[in-house]
Amino acid sequence: MTSISRRSFVVALPLIAVGLASAARAQGDPPANASATLFQNVRIFDGKSGSLSAPSSVLVKGNIIERISTAPIAVEPGVVVIAGNGRTLMPGLIDAHWHAMLIRPTPVQSVNGDVGYNNIAAGAEATDTLMRGFTTIRDVGGPIFGLKSAIDSGIVPGPRIYPSGAIITVTSGHGDFRQLSELPRTIGGMLSRMEQVGGSMVADSPDEVRVRVREQLMQGASQIKLTAGGGVSSPFSPIDVVTFTEAELRAAVEAAENWGTYVTVHAFTPAAIQQAIAAGVKCIEHGFLMDEATAKLIAEKGVWLSLQPLPEDLRLGFPVGSVQRAKADEVWPGIARTYEMAKKYKIKTAWGTDVLFSQALAQQQGAILASLVRWYSPAEALAMATGTNAELLALSGKRSPYAGKLGVVEQGALADLLLVDGNPLENINLIADPAKNFKVIMKDGKVYKNTLGG
Ligand SMILES: [Zn+2]
């Protein structure tokens, strides 16, 4: 490029950017973007407490909850008023274990399908996710960065995304979805299709792990996800195996901590969990085959346990006689045991769903949360999916994509809010039917749904 053409290119750039932004607004079905919204006469579940507040007013300005008061707040010009009529105002829900790119496609489509199609399908699912009241998700594996940018720039409505990017695994580990026909791979040779699309990356030494971790951070990962032990859905990954070595896990932890963030690992067994903790991992996903000694260790070290009350339908979805079904049959009985140990040892527990490859199951996202009442009160379950999950998100530090406090209704927090028709602390099943019971859905101060008018 000559210096003249470079200069005209640089001059043209802002114009291109302006053009793209207005095109995005024209096509993106933008939310009603009031600069201020006043909720009157609402009872607040604040994301922590066991009971609702007295009738209150809540003023949102820009994307922040500016004021909460039991006394009336004066209506300034230009403020949109929403009459709550005693309904419940609560924080937007947070799913701490979600794979936004892996809900609508089949497993084969997710690897071999057209990338553009997969992103558009994931965009539609992201809109549905937001309309279920989930204003934030922690994405623990998948080629998520494009979808996240499209949501953040207002092209497609969807939740806030805390992205991990590609799942980092070992040869034959959970997340290695290659076929045996793709082996052996030349060392330093071609990437597999799965790796090219950014779904998961295979790394078999500390050096390779560092490269793959740093690549995810460079793309905007807010935390790093590795698979430290076998998994149910992977064809060549037995449940009982430990995959990474401690040195490999430590390499990931160092690279993440150099960037001020943390590593979370998929792990079921005591051996896999204990090795991960020794390497400095800050969060364990699932942990369903852990024993009492491991539960004690998790509690002692202050490590997070990210649990999912996986529904029976997910287990039954694996064909009888398949390797995956046999593994699911081994893991599922551990779910209840693990929840009981998490309570017994007061482990810091996050909640998520881990829905994979099923739009129908994704529609049960709220119902899966409500199913926590097997072990918790409705208030405890809802606090886990709001205030507590937000504490886990905060581990990302400066790598958090969104400045501000999430998961709570308090002055100065980000305005991600749901107005619920009824009291979910008395009837948590209200959460399971969001189309009917969520009258207002607000994310980042913008109203995405309002069936009350105002
Ligand atoms: Zn998962």
TrEMBL record:
<dbReference type="InterPro" id="IPR011059">
    <property type="entry name" value="Metal-dep_hydrolase_composite"/>
</dbReference>
<dbReference type="InterPro" id="IPR006311">
    <property type="entry name" value="TAT_signal"/>
</dbReference>
<feature type="signal peptide">
    <location>
        <begin position="1"/>
        <end position="23"/>
    </location>
</feature>
<feature type="domain" description="Amidohydrolase-related">
    <location>
        <begin position="88"/>
        <end position="447"/>
    </location>
</feature>
<dbReference type="Pfam" id="PF01979">
    <property type="entry name" value="Amidohydro_1"/>
</dbReference>
<dbReference type="GO" id="GO:0016810">
    <property type="term" value="F:hydrolase activity, acting on carbon-nitrogen (but not peptide) bonds"/>
</dbReference>
<keyword id="KW-0732">Signal</keyword>
<dbReference type="InterPro" id="IPR006680">
    <property type="entry name" value="Amidohydro-rel"/>
</dbReference>
<dbReference type="InterPro" id="IPR032466">
    <property type="entry name" value="Metal_Hydrolase"/>
</dbReference>
<dbReference type="InterPro" id="IPR051781">
    <property type="entry name" value="Metallo-dep_Hydrolase"/>
</dbReference>
<protein>
    <submittedName>
        <fullName>Imidazolonepropionase</fullName>
    </submittedName>
</protein>
<dbReference type="InterPro" id="IPR057744">
    <property type="entry name" value="OTAase-like"/>
</dbReference>
